[in-house]
Amino acid sequence: MSCVQEWPEPIVRVQSLAENGCATIPDRYIRVPKERPGEDLVAHDVDIPLIDLGGLFSPDEGAHAATLAKVGKACREWGFFQVVNHGVPGDLMDRVLEVWRQFFHLPMEEKQRYANSPNTYEGYGSRLGVEKGAILDWSDYYFLHYLPSGLKDHNKWPAHAPYHRDVVEEYLAEVVKLSGRLMKVLAINLGLQEDRLQNAFGGEEVGACLRVNFYPKCPQPDLTFGLSSHSDPGGLTFLLPDSHVSGLQVCKDNKWVTVKPSRHAFIVNIGDQMQVLSNAHYKSVEHRVMVNPNVERLSLALFYNPTGNLLIEPIKELVTPQKPALYRPMTFNEYRLYIRSTGLHGKSQVESLKRNINQDKHDHF
Fold first, then answer.
1. How many other CB atoms sit within 10 Å of the CB of residue 326?
2. Long-range contacts made by residues 150-157, C-beta under 8 angstroms, separation at least 24?
3. Burial 84-100 (b: 16+ CB within 10 A, else e)
4. pLDDT in tens, 89-104
5. Residue 3 — pLDDT band, cuts 50, 70, 90?
6. Is 211 helix (H, G, I), strand (E, B) or coil?
7. Of 3.30.70.120, 2.60.120.10, 2.40.100.10, 2.60.120.330, which CATH number belongs to 14-364?
8. Reported pTM
9. Is 143:210 a contact under the CB 8 Å cutoff?
10. Per-domain residue ranges for the chain?
11. Which of 1, 22, 2 is nearest to 12 (CA)?
12. Where's the Fe2OG dioxygenase domain (predicted)?
């Protein structure tokens, strides 16, 4: 997959701005007034569902069915939920957060060895999209490929400590296992064979990549975002948040809900490709990240995606005369190339895939 080769402007590391003690943020991070964070739009008395996945492994059929139902309800009503008792060791979650925190506190010249480009985004980065003069987010990140194995290149993974790559490798393997388990749950809740969604993703040839988000302290958090409002372009996202610092907000009923992260929990959300495959039974949801004036924040997002060259379209078993196919086919490679070119813009990307049902009927007759 090809893309633009170079960034349109010199890259500035947000962490450097924060550590230099700036009292105001540069104009390129300042949102126009109508797009800035607003307390009047935040719902403080609700949170996304918290689901104990232990029931999935229970011999008690009632507990198993109840857990399935909770996941199904969360996917349909929220598109976001937290999971505990998920099978990934808590000490491994702690270790992987620590090795990435160590990376972001290395000297800048060491981190710059891993600087990325818009061609693959793999490596150390500070912006999405290649639009010149675009308003940027107050964050740095590290992006790397894990699956398919042909894309994984350990030379592009940080090696600042002897164990860094080993910890990251072990962590990603565990989260991919969890992804496969939840894919079966989501399929069953749609009335499909348990391997139907996995096969639609490409079977064993799925994609998985990691984005590590670093949100430095921000002196004017009311003017900018750590990550602009968007829905995730892939299939499923498994977010390991900093349980000590909240920042993620999810859009629900035209209000923003601030997620309260639980220790050793994953925040799971539906991506655009799952919305397309499920014919909108499951919906990806807009979310954004706030920044903090007093503390930095770190999070790890594993994206579990369809293989890049497969056409993704509504699964035929979910297409009926009452609910025809809502989306036109597109490969995931084509879809993410579009996003890498334009940056994050709410749900405009997946909305652009919608078919004109009335026009389709007219053409048919």
1. 18
2. 151/207, 153/122, 156/114, 156/122, 156/123
3. eebebeeebbebbbebb
4. 999 999 999 999 999 9
5. low
6. strand
7. 2.60.120.330
8. 0.92
9. yes
10. 14-364
11. 22
12. 205-306
